[in-house]
């Protein structure tokens, strides 16, 4: 008997998400076989069910679609706010305040509305592309053609980050400029660099002859294997030494809480581009830094 029981585990939270999931989905066949499958799964998930975890019993195709639909919705939410960031950039708005304002509407919600360099990793990009490919096989591609736009908004943020870096250099050519990239993992608290926006931006800058030094609290070994052409540093202090600009591309908590005053003496020019809207812009400006961010004035 085939039963479909999708998981929704986030990297870095696999145990927590297994023990305390948001929901359980059972895709089962009709009839007695399906009822037996539900009993078996209920026994397996007795602990989370005992905590009141919602359980949705459905047919096999719906269960399979739940997984890709959930990931597509999350990717769409991120690209929606990043599209608003593009508009904020031309209209002079602040996307972080925009996200706060629309996010308090409980129909929208503030979660997954952080504008910045966009999504990556081994799940969301692959899942939306696989969903489009499968829909095409089923001759239903118009239903998910919007995901192509979700993907392209996401990828545009990376090139926009390169443009902002060129802008912050204030006339100095990118070729030969020394750039510190803080963050290589696709998200904080992970050493995963698969489809990492941060590492992609570092590689794009390197391709344009910038002298890039990358650091990350956990992902340097993986990044070194994936992008051996880049230079790496073990610490922020080492990475920013003598650079013309600092880019914050993964929102690790240790980067959010960096003391800009302490870094000023290390860099050649105090210029920072906040690719994750993770820094306290006012504190950095008050410490003498030129501060730029995606989607903010
Ligand atoms: N972890 C796995 O091995 C695996 C395998 C296959 C599918 N999946 C599916 O993929 C989903 C996502 O897993 P994940 O590990 O990539 O985790 P995640 O949900 O923590 O992160 C996904 C992406 O969203 C971004 N993001 C996170 N919070 C955000 C916010 N507030 N605003 C804007 N962007 C934000 C992250 O930078 C990341 O690129 C899972 O729920 C699961 O259904 C996971």
Considering the protein shown, what is the CATH homologous superfamily of the largest domain?
Answer: NAD(P)-binding Rossmann-like Domain
**Count of distinct structural domains:** 3
Number of strands: 8
Broad structural category: alpha/beta
Q: What ligand species are in this complex? A: nicotinamide-adenine-dinucleotide
H/E element string? HEHHEHHHHEHEHEHEHHEHE
In what range is the share of β-strand residues? 5-15%
- Count of individual helical segments: 13
Description of the molecule:
The chain is α/β, with parallel strands linked by helices and 297 residues long. The protein folds into 3 domains: 14-58, no CATH class; 63-152, Orthogonal Bundle (N-(1-d-carboxylethyl)-l-norvaline Dehydrogenase, domain 2); 157-293, 3-Layer(aba) Sandwich (Rossmann fold), CATH 3.40.50.720. The protein has 13 helices and 8 strands. Strands 5-4-3-6-7-8 form a 6-stranded parallel β-sheet. α4 (60-91) crosses α6 and α4 (60-91) packs parallel to α7. The mean pLDDT is 97. Nicotinamide-adenine-dinucleotide is lined by residues 8-11, 71, 78, 111-114, 119-121, 123-124, 186-187. Nicotinamide-adenine-dinucleotide binds at residues 8-11, 71, 78, 111-114, 119-121, 123-124, 186-187.
Topology of helices and strands:
Blueprint: H1 14-19, E1 24-27, H2 32-44, H3 46-50, E2 55-58, H4 60-91, H5 95-103, H6 124-137, H7 146-168, E3 178-182, H8 197-207, E4 211-215, H9 220-226, E5 231-232, H10 236-240, E6 245-248, H11 253-256, H12 260-264, E7 271-274, H13 281-286, E8 290-293
Parallel strand pairs: 1-2, 3-4, 3-6, 4-5, 6-7, 7-8
